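Sequence and fold:
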Amino acid sequence: MSGFWVVGFIILVGYLAARYGILAPAAGAALTRTAFFITNPALLFTVLAKADLTGVFTTYAPLAITLACLTAGIYIAASRLWFQRSAAETAIGAMASSYVNANNIGLPLAVYALGTAAPVAPVLMVQLLLLAPAYLTVLDISSGRRFSLKTALTQPVRNPMILASFLGAAVAVGHLQLPSLLEDPLQLLGGAAVPLVLMAFGMSLSGAGSLRFTVARTDLIVTTLLKTVIMPVLAVLVGRFVFRLDNAHLLGAVVMAALPTAQNVFLFASRYDKGVALARDTALISSGLAIPALIVSAWFLT
């Protein structure tokens, strides 16, 4: 609860700063870019450089793939049986149901609620290295665009957080000791990641009231229910009975699964002009329901 309070307080500060014009409207985008390209990579690098990768990647990465596939599969089945959506719209709906906001929300929540950012990196890497290219391939093919293998293969390499995660993992595997002249500034930059991201998220909420839910109600209910309820429940069941996780690792897995829909889903939907309203509205509603879902998950597992 104290971790959630810290997160909520900083989000509130960002919201009030935008609501009363303390920061310019463009400040939120500037904070997001700073976090994406500078502070978040620094945090992931410093955390992974000192992490026990055996437990981190062998536990969370396979579970993240399993949960994403199960949750997306339920939506795909529902779409085929009841919604009768196109392949592109089904891909966006499946992504909205299972693609979590590991960066903007997962990173600060993990730091303050779990005490470590280690569970974030495997989920982030699974999504960016495996899931995003797969969904983009479906969207490219179904929209009639020419699929670019080069773009799909180089996309992860162009992501600063993936590069930072790989470098941090390499330092940990090699048991390397960073010189203090390098480690200290990276630690300082990484320390700024969480407040920057949370303030930017709070600022984005100041304009959320203008959004209107125009998407079909059934689709929205299904994607929101899958993301907010079904995916965390699957994390408990699969993590406990298939992967045999202890309570500490299980809590980390459930927290990652209970995160809201990532903004990247909206970006992909906008790029292909498919399922835009569904992606936007699911991200908005699941963001509002995330904290209650996470509190219930934490209470249930402790």
Remarks:
- The chain is about 80% helix and 0% strand.
- The first helix runs from residue 2 to 19.
- The radius of gyration is 19 Å.
